Amino acid sequence: MAFSARYLRRRLLNAFNLGISVLATIFGLFWLTWLFWTLVSHGLQWFDTSLFTQSTPAPGAVGGGIANAIIGSLLITLVGVVVGTPIGILAATWLAEFGRYSRIAMVIRFVNDILLSAPSIVIGVFIYAVVVARFGHFSGWSGGLALAIIMLPVVLRTTEDMLVLVPDQLREAAAALGAPQWRVVVTVVYRASLGGILTGVMLGIARISGETAPLLFTALNNQFWSSNMSQPIANLPVTIFQFAMSPYANWQHLAWAGALLITLAILALNLFARLVIRSHAFVK
Amino acid sequence: MLFRGITRLAALLVLALMAAILLVLLVQAWPALHRFGWHFFSGTDWNPVTVQFSALPSIFGTVVTSMIAMVIAVPVSFGIALFITEMAPAWLRRPVSTAIELLAAIPSIIYGMWGLFVFAPVFSEYAQPWITDHIGNWPFIGVLFQGPPMGIGVFTAGLILAIMVIPFISAVMRDVFDLVPTVLKESAYGVGCTTWEVVWNVVLPYTRVGVVGGIMLGLGRALGETMAVTFIIGNSHTISRSLFMPGNTISSTLANEFTEAVGPIYTSSLIALGLILFFITFVVLGLAKLLLLRMGTREGRTS
Questions:
Q1: Residue B44 phi/psi, 5° resolution?
Q2: Among B62, B116, B218, B261, which is least packed by CB within 10 angstroms?
Q3: What is the pLDDT of residues B107-151, one digit of tens each?
Q4: What mean pLDDT comes out for the span B202-222?
């Protein structure tokens, strides 16, 4: 059976385009492999106990670690999560449960989507103008606030998506039993979408814990051990930035070790969030 | 009622936050905007010593790097989404899409370090001379690829931005491709379509809203990306015709100079840059949303 030229051309176009698509996938995976290889080959050799127990060394000094930066990062991120998460969940609750179809809800969704993609460095400038300039000094609190503003839209968006997925029959069933609306939300809707909300929070944490730009002019950095949130505080991303750009070999080694550490932590968070999604889907 | 009030307050806080950001940036940027006027948007000088500032080189760098990123990232992301949804055997789907998503989880500062210390030397050693030799003498576009092979520069920044936004765009494309009803695809296969024809004529028209949404999401991220660009763009307040020359973006200027700025006009000029960046992303995302809404309604009417 002879194939027409048109048929051959279609088959050829198909094979060519699918081949390109395989190449595109390899292209994507290639960079991932290269990045990982770089991190492991540059960072792993500087992993030792002093990395986690000692503070950042003076310029040109030997040894030292990034313990103060790790603690500082944890503190700032904690502030970001504690401030950003409840506001995000509550706002999402209003959008999904009370004002779902109202005009103002549409405006809020629109604004939230813009905040979600707003450049994080602009958030840093905003917090600098509002907090840092007013109090006259950089502080851990201002860094935490900047991260909270970045966290808020992430939590809001995922939470609303999850709340909307809860079937209305569940709400109606609870309401029919005489539960007031807040009870329906707290005991039925939240519970049904708990896994999804937690995932949103974890993805938010993963997002803010690697953020460097908004911390550059809020939390700044601190070479010494400090847990005073009213003062500039050491944090992992800015430390990595400063050390990587420095001419001192020891600082650069610490930067690579810190880079590997922060990437592993964020990847672990992401994979964990994924597991929660899967177990949640299983229960459903 | 109390619960409802609290949630309403939280929701309105989002609006207040946006208004506050715009207002504060505008107030703080006003001294510079007032002093330089339109020259702030059209001039090319950036000199802290003579207190002359203008935004054009930074805006130019932001737009050009994002364009490069989109030109590379959109087709690649489409290919990846196509591979995952239509071609990959079932056992390969999850690992590949997880791996691509992990690309998005890596913090931008890591991309910056890798780009400056690992990628740029390799690029300048092997790829750049070849490109300059072979494409540098083409008419019209050749001039874009001329100049010394430094590794860093506008093109490298755009390329790394592309790698950073690929996971965002491809994840959205993959998710919306998965939403296409199997019946639709199977009917197309049933009348003899090839895989490519199914994707081009059935999947893509069905999902164009989501595809545009994904592209806009990637563009928004590319425009405001800071740390990776700061590492590799070269940080020079110039507009070069060649993409291989160093440049600057709004975000990299802010990251480099904000804490070192002395004098109210310098700081105010930097905040004005931030305002411009915020405004650009606002317009891009706003347009995307409106476009999506219009396409969404059209979709509803014809089907």
A1: -120, 5
A2: B261
A3: 999 999 999 999 999 998 888 888 888 887 787 777 778 777 778
A4: 85
The minimal CB distance from A108 to the residues B15, B79, B258 is found for: B15
Is the Cβ pair A90, B194 closer than 8 Å?
A: no
Cα A209 to Cα A203: distance, rounded to the nearest angstrom: 10
Cβ of A123 within 8 Å of Cβ of B3? The answer is no
Residue range(s) defining the domain that contains residue B144: 61-261+279-302
Strand ranges inside chain A, DSSP E = none
The tokens describing B94, both together, are 């999850």
Angstrom distances, CA of residue B227 to CA of A277, B36, B115, B157: 30, 28, 11, 11
Contact A28 B166 (CB under 8 A): yes
In a domain, B46, yes or no: no
Residue A85 identity: T
Q: Which residues contact B110 (CB under 8 A, 6 or more apart)?
A: A35, A39, A210, A259, A262, A263
Q: Which of residues 145-164 of B touch A (CB under 8 A)?
A: 163
Q: Which neighbouring-strand residues pair with B52?
A: B47
Interface pTM, i.e. ipTM? 0.87
Segment A41-58, tens digit of pLDDT: 998 988 888 888 888 888
User: Where residue B207 sits, what CATH number does that domain have?
Assistant: 1.10.3720.10
Contact A270 B101 (CB under 8 A): yes
pLDDT tens digits for A233-246? 889 999 999 999 88
Please indicate whether, in this complex, the C-beta atoms of B25 and A125 are within 8 angstroms of each other. Answer: yes
**Residue B294 pLDDT > 80:** no
CB pair distance less than 8 Å for A263 and B106: yes
Mean pLDDT, to the nearest integer, of A201-212? 89
- Number of compact structural domains in chain B: 1
| Tokens coding B65 | 């790097």
Question: Has residue B33 been placed in a domain?
Answer: no
pLDDT band of A282, cuts 50, 70, 90:
very low
Structure-model confidence comparison of residues A161 and B76, the more confident one: B76
- Those of residues 141-170 in A touching chain B at CB distance below 8 A are 149, 152-153, 156
d(CA B200, CA B207): 11
Q: How confident is the model at residue B296 (pLDDT cuts 50, 70, 90)?
A: low
Q: Examine residue B128 and state whether it is found in any structural domain, yes or no.
A: yes
Q: Compute the mean pLDDT over every residue in chain A, rounded to the nearest whole number.
A: 88
For chain B, percent of residues with pLDDT exceeding 70: 96
Answer whether residue B188 is part of any domain.
yes
Alpha-carbon distance A266 to B106, whole Å? 7
C-beta neighbour count of B145 within 10 angstroms: 19
* ∠ Cα B276 B29 A116 (to 5°): 45
